Amino acid sequence: MSGSLNGNKIMAAGLATAFVIIGLQQVTGAIYATAKPEKMGYFIDAPEEAAGGPAEVVLPPDWGTVLPTADLAAGEAAFARCQACHTANAGGADGIGPNLFGVVGGPVMHRPGFAYSDAMGAHKAEAPTWGYDELDQFITAPARYVPGTKMSFAGIRDQNTRVNLIAWLRSQGSGGYAVPAPDPSRQPGAAAPAEGAAPAEGEAAAGTGAETAAADAGGPTGAAPATGAAAAATTQTAPAAPSAATSSTNSPR
Ligand code: HEC
């Protein structure tokens, strides 16, 4: 009697253990099955969309080439995505976001009366001017470029759309902000050799020369591009880590 009872207890214990193990496997299975691909989805998604150019991550637009031929009407149309929060006309009111008249080439936090985030203040300390590259990166992924910004906007992945938009924004009070000279090292053809290092060096050197010339010609940004590009490379790669930023960007407000 006690023998069979013990046997039952042992069986019960064994079964219980088995259930616990199976249960755990299912729970972990569930966690891995859902959570992992979901995370990876986000990460692979963003860069891949952005990978419409790796050009976008590796090569910023060659402003001297793309701005003169940008489609201003398309840029104005793209601004519809900003209008919930921004005006861009002269004397336009601040809304959820600051008025953007003259922001291209202007100082970061260019509207003194607007309550910017501390994050934007920290960004200003590092990069005080909204040059073309800085704006481009910000609009690509605001929360990645300025972590903690209160601009809750997921970003525009398509480089061409951003170029048109920035060209149009420039037409709103920033016409005096110089367009840099075309930079061969930034042109799409230069992208492939850039990976192979050697030929790219020569081209890059040529590009820097041109840029310095442009700087001498009076562009205030002229000095920045070299370091700007380096900074761009680091800021682009580094922020891949914080997933919080990515998901908060995606969560609707
Ligand atoms: C949901 C509202 C919202 C949308 C949509 C939005 N913004 Fe913003 N934007 C903000 C806020 C808020 C700030 C201030 C950010 C801070 O202080 O961190 C800001 C700041 C900016 C700045 C910096 C201005 C300065 O004075 O330094 C630029 C440039 C900008 N936005 C451009 C855009 C563009 C271009 C779009 C559309 C592609 C856009 N924003 C869409 C809310 C928005």
From TrEMBL:
Region (Disordered): 174-253
Residue ranges occupied by any Cytochrome c domain in the UniProt entry: 70-173
Keyword list, A-Z: Electron transport, Heme, Iron, Metal-binding, Transport
InterPro entries for this protein: Cyt_c-like_dom, Cyt_c-like_dom_sf, Cyt_c_1A/1B
Keyword Ribonucleoprotein among UniProt keywords: no
Pfam family, one: Cytochrom_C
Chain intervals with Low complexity compositional bias: 188-253
UniProt superkingdom: Bacteria
Protein name per its UniProtKB record: Cytochrome c domain-containing protein
Species of provenance: Brevundimonas kwangchunensis
